[in-house]
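Structure ticket #2291
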Amino acid sequence: MSNYTIDLALKPTTFDLWHVCLAGTVAVLALMLICLLLAMVISLSRRSKKPQPVAEPIIQYVQAPAPEPVIKVVEKIVEKIVEVEKIVHAPAPEPVVLKEATPDAALQLLGLLQKEARFIDFVKENITEYSDEDIGIAARVVHEGCNKVINEHFTLAPIRNETEGNNITLLKGFNAAEVRLTGNIVGNAPFHGTLVHKGWQITHTRLPKLTQGHSANIIAAAEVEI
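Resolution: structure written out below.
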């Protein structure tokens, strides 16, 4: 049995039909493999570039209110204009008018007190030179005369009918001109306190009428004995 040694370094010297078919088959297979690889690469690139589906925003449709009629809109505009005019042309608050008291009545009252009680003489007299007994006698005369004038020309009535020294309650809304609060005043009415003075109010005045030309400034005329 003879041994055959194959020299792989040898190159074929002939190129027959079998070799041609083998080379063509290898070339076709290589071309198909390249095409398959290209197709896979293109498919992957297209998948990566494909945009992801975006969720469509949910739009809620709210039914708009029906427009108001033109007449109502115009009426509202006119009302607003009238309100603005009232604000702009609002009347200014009336100024506080202070009532000026005429001195005639006060002067007339002083004249009556001087006439009946010698009131001005007693007040203007320097009583430091007199004893308490002398002053007491003069005060009695002044008191009787003043009481006579008050009773003849004025009608008096107490503001509070409770007995002085009793506890009373002033409710909310009491007349502050009639009742004066003293002491520790804290918070709001009702107030609870002691009636110290019942107060006085004049319900009727009967001053004599002055004749024309009479000067009320003359409280007491000077007296000259002849």
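Closing remark: The chain is about 40% helix and 10% strand.
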